[in-house]
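A reminder from the course coordinator: this example appears on the midterm review sheet, so study it carefully.

Given structure:
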């Protein structure tokens, strides 16, 4: 039995045969070389995907850094607030003790208050690098300014 075909059918058959051989050849080269393609055109879709993944990774890394910075600042602020709380508790203890003492014996209380004031100011003016932690939006200015000229 003979098959009769047109020129167009012959061309289509040849195209599909050649395309199959080309894919087989590309697969053999990939297997032998370990590379996906021998030209940049063969990896253009993968490059786009790679750039998207790298961008997402960079964003995630920056997000992680921001979280670490925020956590460090929260920890520093918490430590300083705990220091202020301790000073307030000690002052309360001094005041309770001084209520039981004679009226003229306030030198210890006065010394403690002066030292406590300086410590509280240090806690309020705590810094993380070049930023003041407790100064709100004005991170470049100290929270408490003891300069009398201001």
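Designed residues:
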């Amino acid at each position: 039995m003979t098959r009769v075909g047109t020129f167009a059918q012959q061309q289509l058959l040849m195209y599909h045969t050649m395309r199959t051989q080309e894919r087989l050849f590309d697969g053999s080269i990939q297997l032998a070389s370990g590379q996906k393609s021998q030209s940049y055109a063969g990896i253009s879709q993968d490059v786009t995907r790679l750039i998207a993944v790298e961008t997402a990774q960079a964003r995630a890394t920056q997000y992680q850094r921001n979280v670490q910075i925020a956590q460090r600042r929260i920890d520093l602020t918490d430590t300083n607030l705990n220091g202020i709380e301790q000073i307030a508790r000690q002052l309360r203890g001094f005041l309770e003790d001084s209520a039981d003492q004679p009226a003229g014996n306030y030198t210890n209380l006065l010394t403690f208050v002066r030292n406590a004031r300086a410590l509280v100011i240090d806690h309020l003016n705590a810094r993380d690098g070049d930023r003041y932690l407790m100064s709100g939006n004005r991170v470049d200015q100290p929270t408490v300014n003891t300069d009398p000229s201001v």
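The chain has a mean pLDDT of 84. The beta strands are 127-128, 131-132.
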